[in-house]
Amino acid sequence: MASGFFALLDDIAALMDDVVVMSKISTKKTAGILGDDLAVNAEKATGFVASRELPVLWAITKGSALNKLIILPIAFLLSAFIPIAVTIALVLGGLYLAYEGAEKIYHYFFHKNQNNEYRVYVKKNLTQEEQKAAEKKKIKSAIFTDFILSVEIVIIALGTVLEREILFQVLVVTIVCIIATVGVYGIVALIVRMDDFGYRLVKLGDEKGFLNHLGNLLIRALPIVIKSLGVIGTIALILVAGGIFVHHIEFIHHFVVQINLPSILIEFIVGLVVGLFTLLLVNFIKTTKSKLYS
């Protein structure tokens, strides 16, 4: 009995070693999407009052964890019984990401002044109830976008272990999801609190010396980082969408392989074209609907 028990422990140890190795491989394969996830969610988690940044980020983190708890069992079931449904879900998610990225570009070029006015209005003129409503709306948007990106992360990670037994798939993909959630939102938390850390360094350095200069550098860098994340997040949305279309829609894949351009540029162009088309279609539907009900 003792020998059987130790043999079982040895099998478990070997399994966990294998899981760790495959988790590393899966994490490397999802590194690109994790980078996009970081850029997108960091941009969505900024723009709140300082005292509300961490509570809002915690709410988004909990939503992200819940997303993955929902996605994981569904992904395993669909992969086993209806694999085409996984592709359909990915493409629909890609349409949303492309639309959101194209909408951000459209508003930047054609409604820039309106966006600036809106930001001032949010900061100065909203009541406490309106601020809470705006906060909930942005949290909901962030969690929804995270859901789509989480689907992509789960599917990519699952694709690396499809030939293995179900227990192995569950362990590897779950580890990747934990790394994705903790890693991404941990870094986002560091970014949004960069200015507070800078102020602490300034006080610690008694407003002089190296700590003072470093603190002021972090304080001045935060607005630049946030603006950069807005741009990077928009590009990331389009790239993720383009990657989904290129790799999961056969006729697009066959068309783009004949084009002699870097794959990242092809994915961006495809994502942008589909996003602009989706934006035009959505705006047309909205305009038609408003005319019908006016």
Short key terms for the protein model shown above:
globular, mainly alpha, disordered N terminus, 294 residues, 11 helices
Question: Nutshell version of this structure?
Answer:
With 294 residues, this protein is mostly helical. 89% of the residues lie in helices and 0% in strands. The chain has helices at residues 2-29, 31-44, 50-81, 83-110, 112-124, 128-159, 166-192, 194-204, 209-248, 250-256, 263-293.
Structure description:
The structure is a single chain. This protein has 294 residues and is mainly alpha-helical. The protein has helices at 2-29, 31-44, 50-81, 83-110, 112-124, 128-159, 166-192, 194-204, 209-248, 250-256, 263-293. It is globular. It starts with a helix and ends with a helix.
Oligomer: single chain
SSE arrangement, N to C = HHHHHHHHHHH
Strand share of the residues? under 5%
Fraction of helical residues: over 70%
Largest sheet: none
* Overall residue-averaged pLDDT value: 76
In terms of topology, how is this protein built?
Layout: H1 2-29, H2 31-44, H3 50-81, H4 83-110, H5 112-124, H6 128-159, H7 166-192, H8 194-204, H9 209-248, H10 250-256, H11 263-293
